[in-house]
Fold:
Amino acid sequence: MRNRFDMQLAELHRELIAMGALCEEAIAGCFKYLTENDESICDNVLETDRQIDRKEREIEALCMKLLLHQQPVARDLRVVSSALKIISDMERIGDQASDIAEIVQYVHGAGLKAETHIADMARATIQMVTDSIESFVNNDISLANEVIRHDDVVDALFCDIKNELIQTFQAEHEDSAEVLLDMLMIAKYFERIGDHAENIAEWVIYSITGKHADFEI
Structure:
């Protein structure tokens, strides 16, 4: 019985890694679309989001099988329940990447300085997603905590972008206001992706320790 559970748990890890890779692909695609103005990139991001949705359903089914057939207790139960929370956050990452791609079409050619920091945000959030999933698979509390700390970097980049856009708005004609707001929305979605990666890391810590930051007494 234990060997079967371990095999299914290994499958769960593989599926989570695959879903995480799709999230990374979607985030990277958003920034590539912002810089390359190629509609096929937008289509790829939207299709990747659909793949993420399908992967969520597949992993949910696997988790239900583990819960119903294996009836895990203690830490094993926390691992499976945490995985269900994690895929929910990853599904939201896919949705937000899709939202970014749909906004990007309105800002092409704007040449705004904030694009530099958005590139930094994209790279930072990709790393957060990668590390959060790796920390779950490897039971690595230290890496999970590093993801949580790194969210401060993404938040700071969002503030930098917001300040630069305000300065641009003050310096440019009012015609640029709509594009500036679109850029701010893009930055906000990246900031939310960082929040979801942080959530994943917190569930990793819960799966290992039984303690969650939001439920401390």
About this structure: The chain is about 85% helix and 0% strand.
